[in-house]
Design a protein that fits this description.
single chain; mainly alpha; 4 helices
């Protein structure tokens, strides 16, 4: 499989080469290495490795979510109503920040 790269020399120079002691960058070798990595990642072995990493991340996050649910259950079991109302207000605030459309809020013109 061929992988093509576009290099914006202006941004390359001002982003990483300006002020550095090395003024020459072997783009052909760099892009060959990057291309090999990309080709490996989209190959069968690369997809298996990516799948395993995603599985581990989801497994860890799900464990944290279950612990958070248990903690919230303990808070609800022992907290007065004002704490529960405060947590509900925080949850609504989070929804307003991340997904205001969910509550029917629209952008101000």
């Amino acid at each position: 499989m061929n992988t093509y790269f576009y290099v914006d020399a202006f941004n390359l120079y001002f982003g990483c080469c300006r002020g550095a002691p090395f003024k020459w960058l072997d783009l052909a070798t760099l892009m060959a290495v990057v291309g090999d990595v990309i080709n490996f990642l989209i190959s069968g072995k690369g997809l298996i490795i990516i799948g395993a990493i995603i599985f581990v991340i989801v497994y860890v996050i799900s464990g944290l979510v279950f612990k958070l649910i248990e903690l919230i259950a303990k808070i609800f079991a022992s907290a007065p109503v004002s704490v529960i109302i405060g947590l509900a207000a925080i949850a609504v605030g989070v929804i307003v920040i991340f997904n205001p459309v969910l509550l029917g809020l629209v952008a101000w013109p």
